[in-house]
Amino acid sequence: MSDENPKTTPSSNMEKDPNDWVSGDEPMTGAQASYLKTLSEQAHDPDAFAEDLTKAEASRRIDALKAKLKL
């Protein structure tokens, strides 16, 4: 058993690859849809948004658009 306190030791879950997510095949969340729609409009890339994306697909597209917009 580890002596590290999970409340004070940063977790690496935020860095997990979307392909490794247990819930990655579930539909994207409302928050993801909203953010992706906003980013796709800012990037003038309407094709980046689609209503039927999974959580993992939405995350990858959000990351790509953020990189494109240098956010």
Features:
71 residues; mainly alpha; 0% strand; globular
Short description:
This protein is an all-alpha fold. It is 38% helix and 0% strand. The protein has helices at residues 30-42, 55-68.
Please provide a written account of the structure.
- This protein is an all-alpha fold and 71 residues long.
- It has a domain at 24-68.
- Helices cover 38% and strands 0% of the residues.
- The chain contains 2 helices and no strands.
- The radius of gyration is 15 Å and the shape is globular.
- The termini are far apart.
What's the helix and strand layout?
Elements: H1 30-42, H2 55-68
Instruction: Flag low-confidence runs.
Output: none
Name the helix and strand elements from N-terminus to C-terminus, one letter apiece. HH
- Helicity range of the residues? 25-40%
Strand residue percentage: under 5%
Report how far the terminal alpha carbons are from each other: 39 Å
Biggest sheet descriptor? none
Q: Which structural category fits the helices and strands?
A: mainly alpha
Average pLDDT metric: 84
What is the 3D shape?
A: globular
DSSP strand count:
0
Count, helices: 2
Q: Compute the CA-based radius of gyration.
A: 15 Å
